[in-house]
Amino acid sequence: MSHLKLASGLGRLGTESAFTVLARAGELAAQGRDIINLGIGQPDFRTPEHIVEAGVKALRDGHHGYTPANGIPALREAVAVDLGMRHGVDVDADCVVVVPGGKPTMFFAVLMFGEPGAEIMYPNPGFPIYESVIRYSGATPVPIALSEDKGFAFDADEVLAQITPATRLIIINSPANPTGGVTPKTEIDKLVAGLEDHPHVAILSDEIYSQMLYDGRDHVSLLQYPQIRDRLIVLDGWSKTYAMTGWRMGYAVWPKDLVGHATRLCINDHSCVNAASQYAGLAALTGPKDEVHAMVAEFDRRREVILSGLNALPGVRCADAAGAFYAFPNIEGTGLSSQEAQDRLLNEAGIAAIAGTSFGANGEGFLRFSYANSLENIERALDRFKTLLSS
Ligand code: PLP
What we know:
The chain is an alpha/beta fold. Helix content is 40%, strand content 13%.
């Protein structure tokens, strides 16, 4: 038995089950099982070649050292220009902080506002790390319930009604993981208008899927609302858009008053993102975008196949998923709980998918399928799921 006395916060830290399922799927595959991985949320494409080359060149050119903690200036400038082009907004490059992936920004934002007695709102079902780090900070997590009948968009009135004097931060995510839901502009307008009555509340808008929208939808960025800029943190990054999950490249736009705190957190945590990745990230922003567009077009083709395939299965129905690369079907009609379905799909059908409950209590009755896999594998998975349900 260990005599070590661990900090109590560790016991409150959650996890991201997608990594556990990925490991289990890997074990099964190593035993010779044919596993179709619709579990992990990462593009199945290679990072475009010109981006890889820029990373390699950076190493050859001697970029082996520390960079400024908040990111190399040219990269922060390129982020500001990119956001300006995509969202039609002015962004000060000094408010951009480059971090290793999307996750550090959510951790830093929650560390800035979370402590016992504070309340932080987060989407449920939602990306599991939000609730995990809120609990770790000692703050009270207040779920924003997302429902299938509203296409998993948040309801602004419901969010506003939950604000109390203890609310410090509201986390929103559109397009969303795990549901693929996209919140319409009308709800965002209403939320922002309502927040004027609550100047003590900060907003973290996780826009990491902002370039993965379908059916001609345009992304609505919270950056487009100048009235909340002084309390808005926008999280985005390279992982999904440029198929760069392993490079660990993300960024946030922070309000002027918080950017110094964010940079100090970088200095305390990781010093800076590795230099070669930053040069690769710069090439991603300034280079051609045709491969990004081709990836999104391919995701869209798969989306149509998986949505119609799931909706044709007995006991399964799947809401439209207008963004990201996830389908989040309701499986209540199959009589299986989310966890049972996850286990049986993996063990009996060789399909890695994630139980909806991994994304919060409101995910019971749902499964998450990532369609970042080939059309052929998606079709095979749908066939296997059908066989499982009829056995
Ligand atoms: N935010 C959301 C909504 C995500 O789905 C993910 C990854 O799955 C992240 C952030 C984290 O991205 P990264 O791998 O860049 O840390």
